[in-house]
Structures are given as structure tokens and as C-alpha cells.
Design brief:
CATH architecture of one domain: Roll
Radius of gyration: 31 Å
Helix content: 25-40%
Number of strands: 8
Distance between the termini: 117 Å
CATH class of one domain: Mainly Beta
Structural class: alpha+beta
Strand content: 25-35%
Order of helices and strands: HEEEEEEEE
Shape: globular
Number of helices: 1
Oligomer: single chain
CATH topology of one domain: SH3 type barrels
């Protein structure tokens, strides 16, 4: 009887040793697997960052250069603008090619909060960073209070394809006078009517 007990005890001991060895083997492989996963993740993040940097350059080829002249509901006209309607000005903005340095005629002036925004177009295009400009009245369900940098909003502006309905992040916000202008594209010679928007500090009088 004692002999049988010793044999059973020996078998139990061997089984325990095998089980412990198996567990130790699993523990050794797990960190390696995690390391591989982390390495893959970092590689994917690096690739994503490179793509984001290349996509950060704005392409305004599909920008609606001319507008109908219809302004968003609730937008208040400026009562005493620096550049009244009909004023001749020089633009110092490069929202799109053929704009910077062009002579323009003011076709409208309005008091509002103006934002630069980053958004991903709804048509599947690449992310657009620091788009200038979107005004307060071109944001869905905008209240009285101005939005702050970092806040997310839904756009109702249609300056570019895929813009309306897109979720955007506010990059900058400024209370100022914005202008609607007519000008001739210095690159193509195209007559641009009712372009929205140019801020006051992007204009200077024609000397």
C-alpha cells in the first residue's frame, strides 16, 4: 500500500513540474508577442504622422471662388466699416492662388466672429488644416457665444467641396469685420465675384 502511495505521489510531482514548465513557457512568449504588437503600432503611428504632414498642405483647387452674394442668416452688416462697400483695396491673403496682392472691390462688410478650422471633407478627401475663413453664422446651431480653439463644430459653409456637414475643430477665433470682395485672379485672369471671406487685417487701401 505504501509502495502504491509513493508511485502516485511521484506521478503527481512529475505532473506538477510539467504544468509549471508549461506556464513558464507561456509567460516567456507573452512579452515578446506584446513587444511585436507595440512595434507594429508605433510603425503604423509613424506612417500616419507622415501622411498627416503631407496632407496638411491645403489644396484649394475645388474652392468656390465666386459666391452668390447671399449671406448666412443672422449675419449683421457693419455700420461703420474701415472699407465701405465700393472701396478699392489690396488683398494680403493667400487662401487660394491668384489672391495675394490682387486689387479687390469690397462688395459687403459684416461684423462677426471669424474662425480658421481643420476638418475632414465629407466626400472622402484628405484632411484640410487651418482653413480660412469660416464665420460664426456658418456653424450649425451656433449660439450667441463664440467658440473657442479646440472645440468641435459642424460646418454649414460650402466654400469647398465636402465642407458642408463636416465636423471641424476650431483652430483660431477672432471678433472682427469680414469682407466679401470682387477681384481678378492674378494667375488665371478669372473674374471672382462675392468671394467670402477676407478679414480686415488682410486688406490695405489702394494708394
Amino acid at each position: 500500500m505504501m509502495k502504491n502511495n509513493k508511485i502516485l505521489f511521484g506521478l503527481a510531482t512529475l505532473l506538477l513540474v510539467f504544468l509549471l514548465a508549461a506556464c513558464a513557457g507561456n509567460e516567456e512568449t507573452t512579452p515578446n508577442e506584446n513587444t511585436d504588437t507595440e512595434s507594429d503600432t508605433h510603425e503604423n503611428m509613424d506612417m500616419g504622422e507622415e501622411e498627416s504632414e503631407s496632407n496638411g498642405e491645403m489644396d484649394h483647387s475645388d474652392m468656390n471662388h465666386s459666391g452668390s452674394g447671399e449671406v448666412p442668416e443672422g449675419l449683421a452688416e457693419s455700420e461703420n466699416p474701415t472699407y465701405p462697400v465700393g472701396s478699392k483695396v489690396i488683398m494680403h491673403a493667400d487662401h487660394m492662388p491668384g489672391m495675394n496682392g490682387a486689387e479687390a472691390t469690397v462688395s459687403g462688410s459684416f461684423n462677426t466672429t471669424v474662425y480658421s478650422v481643420t476638418y475632414t471633407p465629407t466626400n472622402g478627401g484628405e484632411p484640410v488644416e487651418d482653413h480660412k475663413w469660416v464665420i460664426h453664422e456658418e456653424i450649425e446651431n451656433a449660439g450667441i457665444e463664440a467658440y473657442k480653439p479646440g472645440e468641435e463644430v459642424a460646418l454649414i459653409a460650402e466654400h469647398m467641396a465636402g465642407m458642408k456637414g463636416a465636423t471641424a475643430t476650431i483652430d483660431t477665433a477672432e471678433q472682427t469685420t469680414v469682407y466679401m470682395v470682387d477681384f481678378t485672379d492674378t494667375k488665371t485672369g478669372e473674374e471672382i465675384k462675392n468671394h467670402m471671406w477676407v478679414t480686415e487685417d488682410e486688406l490695405s487701401p489702394v494708394e
